[in-house]
Amino acid sequence: MQALDSAQLYFSRAASALELSDRVTAMLAGAYREVRVQLPIEMDDGHLATFSGYRVQHNNARGPMKGGLRYHAEVDLDEVRALASLMTWKTAVVDIPYGGAKGGIAVDPHRLSSRELERLTRKFVARLHEVVGPDTDIPAPDMGTDWRSMAWFMNEYNKFEGFNPACVTGKPVELFGIPGREEATGRGVGTLALKTLGRLGRQVTGTRVAIQGFGNVGLHTARFLQLAECRVVAVSDLSGAYYNPQGLDIAAMVQYVNQGDGLLRGYTECEVIGGDELLALDVELLIPAAVGGVITMDNVDSIRAPVIVEAANGPIWPHADDRLTEAGVTVLPDILANAGGVTVSYFEWVQNRQHYKWGLTRVRQELDRALSGAFESVWQLATDRKISLRMAAYMLGIDRVREAVEMGGIR
Ligand code: NAD
After folding, report:
1. Is this structure's pTM higher than 0.85?
2. 259: CA distance to ligand 1 center in Å?
3. Are the C-beta atoms of 137 and 103 separated by less than 8 Å?
4. Does residue 16 have a pLDDT over 70?
5. Residue ranges making up the domain that contains 123
6. Of 275, 302, 337, which closes a domain?
7. Residue in 291, 316, 371 to alter for ligand 1 test, most ligand atoms within 8 A of Cβ
8. Are residues 204 and 162 in the same domain?
9. Which tens digit of pLDDT belongs to each residue from 35-59?
């Protein structure tokens, strides 16, 4: 199973439950535009290296297309297609006026110097600037990219198209960014995890949590949940998994990764276990916050957590998801769980267009309001129709896009 098969299966299940016409199904299934670009750059040692970049613009019925930019060795067109469609449903679930898109470059960012990454990002913009922009398609950070890449993106875009900071989100606060964007996805994951525990009648204080991935999303989720008095007993990254049944010192771990190379390698204040062992730990809450396809038919039966919150995009393959549902595990799906990032990106875009600076308190309040509304709608639909939260979220998102497509007509 690949990311695209998985996204298509979830879409077709929801489309058939919604009894979408063939006409609308055909319009929603495919992408509006797909671009592949070749990116030759001069490396620091003077040799020329060539990378492949992608941007898939899935649907713009509800507004300009929006989605992250991923730098990862395994990025390919199919993965970007899958992630672009997830963005269309995600922006609709949280009801912000955007469509969906996604981009990526097949590169391991850890193998490039900062100067090389800057040249690569600028080349990507040079190739794509005509088909992206504040009213068309607005990129944001995703795996392997951060505020630096977004600052380079904006600077390069402005050279071609003139000053327009709303062309990209996730920028540094000092450079037209918005306070709270960096924490937004993790904060949203944490907020929604607490709501899910509450709705299931579970105690929050002392809840044992395991988080796969300690990058932007995993780290902020861990911080938020620890402040909410959960016990974060395990986190992992590419270097392994770090475990303490009494609870980890998240603040110390954040400091460790910030001072080093971004990984927890060498952190000794807890037990080090295998990366895969983390998924099977005896915890109440499991949060995959790294890559897609980590819970499959091969390991699903080892999962012991009764609640899973999908911070990563597509971490559970559909057949494994079915097995979890049969076993009574509650799964909060990615298109709702990690929507905090795109929601605050929307606030940043609004701020840029209004030339008005938002404060952190307002950002957090508006984020909580948007996510709470989406959570209530999804929970209600799942309860009324006796369906999984994933099916409910897909149905809600797809139906909102259907409405816009039908009202706008075929353009
Ligand atoms: P990131 O690059 O900041 O961090 C990724 C983390 O995962 C790193 O700690 C890395 O070491 C770890 N990792 C990678 N492969 C791993 C593996 N096989 N096992 C364990 N750990 C592994 O990326 P991020 O921005 O935190 O994104 C993580 C996930 O969240 C992705 O699926 C992304 O699409 C999704 N997401 C991110 C945002 C955002 O705002 N950044 C928004 C929505 C969804």
Report:
1. yes
2. 19
3. no
4. yes
5. 32-171
6. 337
7. 291
8. no
9. 999 999 999 999 999 999 999 999 9
Same domain membership, residue 191 and residue 166: no
Do 187 and 331 share a structural domain?
A: yes
Lookup: tokens for 185: 């996805």
Structural domain count of the chain:
2
pLDDT digits (tens, 9 = 90+) for 212-255: 999 999 999 999 999 999 999 999 999 999 999 999 999 999 99
In a domain, 10, yes or no: no
Q: Domain for residue 119, yes or no?
A: yes
Q: Of the listed 102, 159, 171, 386, which one is catalytic?
A: 102
pLDDT tens for 23-32 read: 899 999 999 9
The CATH code of the domain that includes 262 is 3.40.50.720
What's the gap in Å between 332 CA and the centre of ligand 1?
17
Alpha helices in 131-288 (DSSP H): 147-161, 181-199, 216-227, 250-259, 275-279
Q: Are residues 206 and 118 part of one domain?
A: no
Same domain, 298 and 189: yes
- Whether the pLDDT of residue 410 is over 70: the answer is no
Report yes or no on 159 lying in a domain: yes
Residues with beta carbon inside 6 Å of ligand 1?
141-144, 185, 212-218, 236-238, 275, 289-291, 311-313, 338, 341
Distances in Å between the alpha carbon of 100 and those of 93, 125, 222? 12, 19, 28
Q: Does residue 265 share a domain with residue 191? A: yes
**Residue bearing tokens 């990002």:** 121
**102 counts as catalytic:** yes
Atom of ligand 1 nearest to the CA of 238: 11
DSSP 111: G
Mean pLDDT computed over every residue of the chain: 97
